[in-house]
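Fold this sequence, please.
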Amino acid sequence: MQAQVSAERIVEVNTAAWEFWRWHARQPGEWTAEYLAGRGLRGVRAGYAPPGWARLVPTLHRKHVTDDELLAAGLAVRTAKGALGDAFRDRLVLPITDTADRIIGFTARRNPAVDGDESVPKYLNTTTTAVYDKHRALYGLDQAAARRITAGAAPVLVEGALDVEAVRRAGPDYVPVAACGTAITTGHLEQLRTLDPHALERAIVTLDGDAAGAAGARRLWDQLTATEAGTIGAVVLPAGTDPAGLLEAGHRDELAALLAHPQPLTHAVIDQALAQHGDHLEGRLAAVRDAAQLVRCLEPYAAAAAGLHLSQRVTDTLDTASVLAEILDAYRSAEARQA
């Protein structure tokens, strides 16, 4: 039976692991520095978990870290025969810190030399521990980021840790954060609301321009308040592209321009609703009815802008009066259900 390990001790063990990986990142011949430079991310403070079954484990044993502590921190795995090995091997490691700058977990990318081997997960993240919960922790939300959000800076919600680093290089006006190993949840959003109740009203979310990105936009939108949903911005990227990819391709200025001029997330969600139906009259009418249900959830000023966007998107099939009639019908239906 595994012994209980305190949150404070797990942070200490994480810190010791980070020091070990940082030392390895500075050694000649390791691949992480060249990889980051090639992605346009020179200077990112990363660690390197060396290859081999057990490199970290014996090192921390010599620092009086026990097996139970390594397992509790998510830094080790145990085989069926009882042998203990490193959880992270031959990976670029980035620390996940909390708003007190404590290292609560890690996200780690595989060696690009094995990118063709799908049996090796591209990213590994710390498992759930006493200090790390992937449904609440956000990469990039350290003490400095928390202070900036509290002071009024705009959070930028991105998919991965390297996207966070890319947005940081696109300009000083944003505070990028990412969920690691999961989609954005209500727990993540609450972290931002705790810092500033209005943080999500000025936030921006980056979206891949494919079907998965559109579905993610809707899932996020559904978790927002009416005020947040009406004002949060969105940057829709070309399909298969992310902020880190734009930076790698030398398009930092393009990324900065996209962030400076986001569209309302509601517009992206409306576009997704329209894309689910055909271009014929019946399909467009069904799409408008679906979108009208979204519009009626918004505050009046945002609803007006969303209604205009909806009308413009179907102008080839339906006139403005028909669109407005569907929106009004959505409001009346909602009021009738509440009566």
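The chain has a mean pLDDT of 93. The radius of gyration is 23 Å.
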